[in-house]
Amino acid sequence: MFVTDLEPPPPGPTLTDTRPSGVFGLELDFATRDEQWLPDAELVDAAVGFDRLIAWASARQSAVLAEFARRGGDGSIRPVTAAVPAREWAADEIAMALTVSPGSARVRLAVAARLDGALRGTREVLEAGRICPSRARLIADRVALLPDAVATVVQDRVLPKAPGQTWAQLDAALRRAITAIDPEGAAERHRAARKERRVDVFAQDDGMATLWARMTAPDAAASFEWLTRLARGMGADDDRSLDQRRADLLAAALTGKLVIRDPTADPVVTAPVSPGKPLITVLVPYSVLTGFDDAPCEISGYGPIPAQLARDIAADAVWKRLLVDPVSGAVLDHGRSTYRPPAALADHVRARDVTCRHPRCRRAATTCELDHVTAWQDGGGTGEDNLAALCTAHHDLKEQPGWRVVLHPDRSVEWTTPTGHTYLTAPYDHRV
């Protein structure tokens, strides 16, 4: 008797999910020896495989550096103690061996030691090839000034989602976790950092320069928002890019040349630009407003801020109500009574999405376009269930041949690339 209804065996490991190792490196090398014959999807998988191999090698090197750093000054395998001093020349040795400066070598040894101790979980995820070296270094940098116990708690909070996040997304998650776990320290660090606000200029090539400013997050976000609004309001006849308009507007404002002209007046009326209060979205739990706790708050498109800073902003702000599901963290309702339904709907979608819904983009939804996920001409409606915030670049990408975007009922957005790979962006979790 022949059995014909047996299910096929599950697929074996691929270049994207095999645990990296030295043997995996050989397999990867063999699989890509004739890369010109590989289909597009396998080239992408191979690129992921090499990224995982790099992460594994970085973790193994970190373990070696940590072992080297903790040995006694005489080179013995005894751990460093009060009786067995550390090697004073360790950084110099590593600097010469790796062709880096002594300062860089000291930092690498310090990071390796932290990854071998309080941040051991980060090194394990790195060794498994699930995060890249730059993101492991980011975790170490963000918690560098925190006590080991607090650093470990922050690490454990962000690691589960870290493999699916970009550097910027992980950075925001780290800042949010630090603010949540150590609110008093976050407020103190903000007060100290605020004293360092300044403006500087750096010369560049070809007659150009960079004007650099360090200021509070609300001031920076509001400044950029108004530059963007003014730039977009300059009309379709202006052939400059949005970036060029922002730069020119900033220069004109700071040199006293930025004015508003009313060509309909007789004579033409000219007045300095005074746009009033900028619009920035600040997510603040009700418990913070009432002073019940100091949970972290957030500026849309920037990231977490301390509770006290959010309360300061709230004292001089126009408020809009958001009803948030306490279980899922999703926006259920955006209270508004002064605008027509289309404006309320736009506000609701932007409040729901917070940022561009491309999986790797953090552009604030307030500066994004609202896209009909299913095109209007294809029967898509203008409703919350068919609208998503997309920045201009990713709105254009969505319309390119081979790309497919689906907005699911739970408001997650699924992107499918021309090679058939899929990426999911979950709806923003408004819970702290």
From TrEMBL:
Gene3D superfamilies: 1.10.30.50
InterPro entries linked to this entry: DUF222 (IPR003870), HNH_nuc (IPR003615)
Domain HNH nuclease stretches: 344-396
Chain segments annotated as coiled-coil in the UniProt record: none
Protein name: HNH nuclease domain-containing protein
Species per Swiss-Prot/TrEMBL record: Pseudonocardia hydrocarbonoxydans
